[in-house]
Amino acid sequence: MSNEVLTGLISSLLGGLSVALVSYFLTRRKTEAETEKFRAEADKIKAEAEKTRAETTKLIYEVERLNVSVEDANYNRTNIKEVVLYDSKKGTSASDFEGLSGIVPEDEKHEIGYGSFRVEHGTLVIERTNAGGSFIVYLRRYSLNGKEKDFIPKNIHVEGTRKLRFSCEARVAKGACSIHIVIAEHFTNKILESKMLPFAQEKWSKIDLVFRVSPLSDCFLQIHHSNIPQPSNLLLRNIFLADRSD
User: Fold this and answer.
1) Rounded-to-integer distance, Cα 174 and Cα 172, Å
2) Which of 98, 108, 113, 238 gets the most CB atoms within 10 Å of its CB?
3) CA–CA gap between residue 35 and residue 41 (Å, rounded)
4) Which residue has the higher pLDDT, 41 or 211?
């Protein structure tokens, strides 16, 4: 084979290889650019979904708050006297509460919620360290007839249902959550009545609830913090609980 033919073949081979390499790098660059574009679009969709979720939660909370406000306003018309069981405005400390980890019953994964609580300048701060499960705070100091107990004693003199009014101001540090306020039976921890509030207020917002429970049960108040998209803090102040029974 002559040198001219060999040179032609090598040149042709090198030329084809160069074209293939150039085509490969161009295609790779295009693929990487498309991947980045898809990733950016996915992040945008995720952000929009989170925004929609927060707005939906806020709307649900406003509807729930309106329903509760109407119920309480109707109840207030009777002008029933209240026996104050707890009022954080008159003094509160971390020893008034007890915190523990819990689950959300509807959660099939049964994730456990972790966190802690503290009291700062009269405000109860529930700090979550994970997003799953529920973190529960028990109110463990009640005043009745000049005596303090870690539960609300039953009242056999009440006919019908016992009415307990709970109120506070609340806000979240970031995002959305569910606040589940529970009146539970002492010792058994059986739920006597509960109210779930979707919550997404980063400004202080009033919560006012009326619970109707059996007067024949010793009971106590629980605050459950759950359904959070990411670890976040829930703050509660001006915590108030009163017995409005006849």
Assistant:
1) 5
2) 113
3) 10
4) 211
Contacts of 62 (CB under 8 A, 6+ apart): none
The residues facing 144 across adjacent strands are: 147
DSSP code of residue 203: S
Those residues with Cβ within 8 angstroms of residue 195's Cβ, 6 or more apart along the chain or in another chain: 68, 180, 181, 209, 211
CATH superfamily of domain region 80-243: Galactose-binding domain-like (2.60.120.260)
Average pLDDT over residues 5-33: 59
* CB-based contacts of 148, cutoff 8 Å, min separation 6: 141, 142
Measured from the Cβ of residue 239, the count of other Cβ atoms closer than 10 Å reads: 24
Q: Token pair for residue 173?
A: 């540090």
Domain boundaries, the chain: 80-243
Burial 22-60 (b: 16+ CB within 10 A, else e): eeeeeeeeeeeeeeeeeeeeeeeeeeeeeeeeeeebbeb
d(CA 116, CA 101): 9
User: CB-based contacts of 168: which residues, under 8 Å, 6+ apart?
Assistant: 206, 207, 236, 237, 238, 239, 240
| CA–CA distance, 52 with 112 (Å, rounded to integer) | 27
